[in-house]
Amino acid sequence: EDKVVQSPLSLVVHEGDTVTLNCSYEVTNFRSLLWYKQEKKAPTFLFMLTSSGIEKKSGRLSSILDKKELFSILNITATQTGDSAVYLCAGRGSQGNLIFGKGTKLSVKP
Amino acid sequence: GAVVSQHPSWVICKSGTSVKIECRSLDFQATTMFWYRQFPKQSLMLMATSNEGSKATYEQGVEKDKFLINHASLTLSTLTVTSAHPEDSSFYICSANTEIAGAWTDTQYFGPGTRLTVL
Hints:
The complex is a heterodimer of chains A (110) and B (119). With 110 residues, chain A is mainly beta. Helix content of chain A is 0%, strand content 60%. Chain A has no helices and 11 strands. In chain A, the strands form 2 sheets. In chain A, strands 2, 4, 5, 9, 10 and 11 form a 6-stranded mixed sheet that branches. A 5-stranded antiparallel sheet of chain A has the order 1-3-8-7-6, with no helix packed on it. The model of chain A has no long low-confidence stretch (mean pLDDT 93). Chain B has no helices and 13 strands. The chains are: A mainly beta (110), B mainly beta (119). The interface between A and B is medium-sized, with 21 and 22 residues.
C-alpha cells in the first residue's frame, strides 16, 4: 500500500531557528516528490524532486531527495513568523496519482 | 487512519459529456471537503469547499453550473464536470477534514487525485 509519512507532525520554533522537515515514502512506480506550503486556501507549490542528491533551493528553503532510502527533507533556515504553515509532501506515481502525507505543522514564534 | 479515496483515478471522455468524480473518507466522517485542480507546474487551485448537507462555496472564477459539487453524506462528496471540454482536462484532487470532540481540526487529508482527459 502506498504511503507517505511526515515527521514531526508539529513543530514550534523561534524566529531565526533552522528547521528540518522529514518525509518518507513508499509509492508504487515512484516518479517524483512534491513539497507544498499550506497556509489558508490551496497549498502553495514549493519543490518537485525527481533525482536523488540534487538539492533544490528557493531563498531560505531547500529540499533534497534520497531515492535509495526513500525520503526527502525540507530545510528552512533563519525562520520567520511568515513561515508558519502546514508543510505537505506528496509522492507521485507513474499514473499521476498523488499520495499526500499528513503534513507538518510549523509554528514560528517571534 | 484518515484515508481519503477518489474514484476513478483516471478518466477519458469525449467533449460534451459529463464526468462524475467521487471523493470518499474511508475511516472518518468528513464535515468539510475541498476540491482542488492542479495546473501545470504543480500549482493547486482551490475550486470549492463543501460541507455535508449544504451547498458548496465556490471560489471566485469557478463556474458553479459547470462544476457541480454534492456533499450528500459525511463520507462522500462528488464533483461532476458537466459538458466537459478539452480545457477541463486536468488533475482534480479532493481533501477532507473533520471535527474531533466538537472542535474543527485544520488537518486536511488529501485524496490521490483523478486525472481527467477530455478528447
